[in-house]
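lol forgot to send this yesterday, sorry. struct tokens for the thing we talked abt
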């Protein structure tokens, strides 16, 4: 369990909070480039770390991220005209470029230099590989973007999805790094078949594990925390799933197949809502069209219509009111949860905890070792930044994000860091192995 004070440090992300200040040290991936496809697009509302913002693409194709509040009289820039490389407030015509500088003030005399003294709140943005990144921290010169592998590959190697969740950001992260729930929440009750999970996918989605109590081994890394969960696969064999947490909000669970590298992250809108991002990539070749539906499974029910409210963006129709489309009959004999997709299963249990879990009343077991270590890593980094100005891990060292995860069936007694080690580092000097070569390599290591 955590103390009340530690839980507040961990979960609160508003300006001036320890965790909010920690997150502002890092570049954050916040938007899809395709959602701002055309220059001079209609401005979009977006909320990040309790701040109400406007995101837009200007005439020159650059992305801007401004405070929603016009510095003149407080009108919303959501209603502004996106024209000639700036947002023009419809109230009095004041216009701001992507740096927040006021570049035109038609309501003032032509000879006035007042516009040169007015700035709207603004954050710098970069685009890479189809994603808009922003830096909300204090540095005039931001740190480098993290060298996450998907972000260094051609876009055709990557597939992306995201959806809104009505819970604190930590609950989502903890779900990603929690291996033991796979044996229950996502498991099928049939030894064969796909338990009628929604969407196309391999039969191994929602595995039926014979060993529901994994052996946990946890270690700190330069980028965060790593653990391996070992389950007895058969006599003399252990099935290892290696998972990574990367500061401050990235979770890399073990891949389902050798054809994919997985990553999720959680961008807090505020303390009660979070945007979950889900990415798969293949480092050695483009992802084929027929693979996309199995790598990023669709959810039944579809999406709500976007409105001016940022929290309607990428919001699924399946929710607590319709019980996440739960089918109790299916829960009896097909899948441990009656909820028809893995993503909705996670969403249901995470939102069922309430917006912020009271971690002072938890009872944690041995299978929670990764969660315990990750919480402490985050809290310690936030407090060190607050009290001593210590730069958090990874901010100035983008190479520490060159990480992958792995699954491997190894002989009992083989160190997982040795057996799975070759697959945990991205961007090695050796070419990426094909799936066949990786399988052959694992067989050699197990012999």
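and heres what i got for the seq, position by position
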């Amino acid at each position: 369990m955590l103390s009340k004070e530690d839980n507040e440090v961990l979960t609160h992300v508003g300006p001036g909070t320890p965790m909010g200040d920690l997150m502002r040290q890092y570049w954050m991936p916040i938007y899809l480039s395709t959602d701002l496809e055309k220059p001079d697009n209609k401005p979009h509302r977006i909320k990040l770390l309790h701040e109400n913002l406007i995101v837009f693409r200007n005439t020159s194709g650059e992305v801007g991220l401004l405070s929603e509040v016009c510095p003149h009289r407080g009108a919303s820039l959501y209603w502004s005209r996106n024209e000639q490389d700036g947002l023009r407030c419809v109230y009095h015509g004041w216009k701001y470029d992507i740096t927040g500088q006021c570049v035109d003030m038609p309501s003032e005399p032509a000879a006035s230099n007042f516009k040169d003294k007015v700035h709207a709140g603004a954050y710098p943005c970069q685009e890479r590989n189809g994603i808009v990144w922003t830096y909300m921290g204090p540095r005039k010169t931001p740190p480098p973007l993290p060298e996450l592998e998907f972000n260094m590959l051609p876009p055709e190697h990557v597939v992306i999805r995201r959806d809104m969740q009505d819970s604190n950001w930590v609950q989502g992260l903890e779900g990603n790094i929690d291996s033991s729930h796979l044996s229950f929440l996502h498991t099928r009750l049939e030894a064969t078949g796909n338990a009628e999970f929604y969407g196309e996918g391999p039969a191994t989605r929602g595995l039926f594990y014979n060993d529901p109590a994994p052996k946990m081994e946890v270690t700190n890394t330069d980028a965060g925390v790593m653990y391996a969960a070992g389950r007895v696969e058969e006599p003399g064999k252990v099935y290892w799933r290696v998972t990574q947490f990367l500061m401050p909000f990235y979770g890399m669970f073990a891949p389902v197949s050798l054809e994919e590298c997985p990553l999720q992250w959680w961008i807090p809108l505020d303390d009660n809502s979070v945007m979950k991002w889900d990415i798969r990539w293949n480092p050695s070749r483009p992802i084929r069209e027929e693979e996309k539906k199995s790598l990023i499974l669709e959810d039944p029910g579809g999406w709500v219509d976007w409105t001016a409210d940022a929290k309607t963006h990428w919001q699924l129709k399946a929710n607590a009111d319709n019980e996440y489309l739960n089918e109790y009959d299916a829960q009896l004999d097909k899948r441990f949860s009656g909820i028809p997709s893995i993503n909705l299963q996670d969403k249901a249990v995470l939102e069922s905890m309430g917006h912020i879990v009271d971690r002072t009343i938890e009872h944690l077991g041995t299978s929670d070792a990764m969660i315990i270590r990750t919480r402490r890593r985050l809290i310690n980094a936030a407090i060190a930044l607050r009290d001593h100005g210590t730069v958090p891990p990874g901010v100035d060292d983008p190479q520490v994000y060159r990480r992958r995860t792995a699954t491997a069936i190894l002989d009992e007694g083989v160190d997982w860091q040795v057996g799975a080690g070759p697959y945990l580092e991205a961007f090695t000097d050796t070419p990426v192995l094909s799936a066949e070569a990786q399988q052959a390599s694992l067989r050699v290591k197990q012999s």
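The longest helix spans residues 369-388. anyway ping me if u want another try
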